[in-house]
């Protein structure tokens, strides 16, 4: 291995360590307490080294959120591919989205700015629309199969996304007084009613 390759590999390793340290700190202390100084201390480098790789904390958060969206997209595709009918695919996709949110709470909070400022300074994340696009495709297929008006697919799928994301957000921000079973039951009933309405 040449000197250039060795330096490149070292840079990639430090960058990955910065992101991992930031995520680990967020899991233990929360996103709000994250700082460039804490990240530097965690990887045992000086703060200027961290700034060599990321302009600011916002850039680190944006990078981690993209990783979260990528992981979510993979889970949604896995769920979709296990089912054959658009109705079953829709149920599976929504369930996968719900499960991801609560198994990866720190990711989800960062991705959608729950309880914190959303990261990215308005930068467009193409991964953001993955869930909406998949439920739109299923919704459109169900509508076509039922002989309903396909022009309603966009509006209907957006309404379902809003309902699912809203339930997750409420549950994450008010865990003390909302039982999880009630919310999952509500989710299942919402999806079932949604499919029947198409």
From TrEMBL:
It comes from the Bacteria. Keywords: DNA-binding, Transcription, Transcription regulation. The keyword Cell wall biogenesis/degradation does not apply. Coiled coil: none annotated. InterPro entries: Homeodomain-like_sf, HTH-type_Tx_Regulator, HTH_TetR, MT1864/Rv1816-like_C, Tet_transcr_reg_TetR-rel_C_sf. It holds the Pfam family TetR_C_33. Residues 12-72 form the HTH tetR-type domain. Residues 35-54 bind DNA. One of its GO terms (molecular function) is DNA binding. This is TetR/AcrR family transcriptional regulator. It comes from Chryseobacterium phosphatilyticum.
């Amino acid at each position: 291995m040449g000197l250039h390759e060795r330096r490149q590999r070292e840079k990639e390793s430090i960058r990955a360590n910065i992101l991992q340290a930031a995520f680990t700190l967020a899991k233990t202390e929360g996103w709000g307490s994250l700082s460039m100084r804490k990240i530097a201390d965690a990887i045992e480098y000086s703060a200027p080294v961290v700034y060599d790789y990321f302009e600011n904390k916002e850039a680190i958060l944006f990078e981690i959120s993209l990783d979260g969206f990528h992981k979510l997209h993979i889970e949604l595709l896995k769920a979709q591919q296990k089912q054959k009918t658009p109705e079953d695919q829709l149920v599976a996709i929504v369930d996968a989205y719900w499960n991801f949110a609560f198994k990866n709470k720190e990711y989800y909070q960062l991705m959608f700015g729950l309880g914190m400022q959303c990261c990215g300074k308005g930068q467009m994340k193409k991964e953001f629309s993955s869930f909406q696009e998949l439920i739109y495709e299923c919704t459109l297929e169900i509508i076509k199969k039922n002989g309903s008006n396909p022009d309603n697919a966009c509006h209907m799928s957006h309404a379902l996304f809003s309902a699912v994301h809203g339930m997750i957000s409420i549950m994450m921000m008010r865990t003390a007084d909302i039982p999880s079973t009630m919310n999952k039951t509500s989710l299942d009933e919402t999806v079932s009613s949604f499919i029947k309405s198409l």
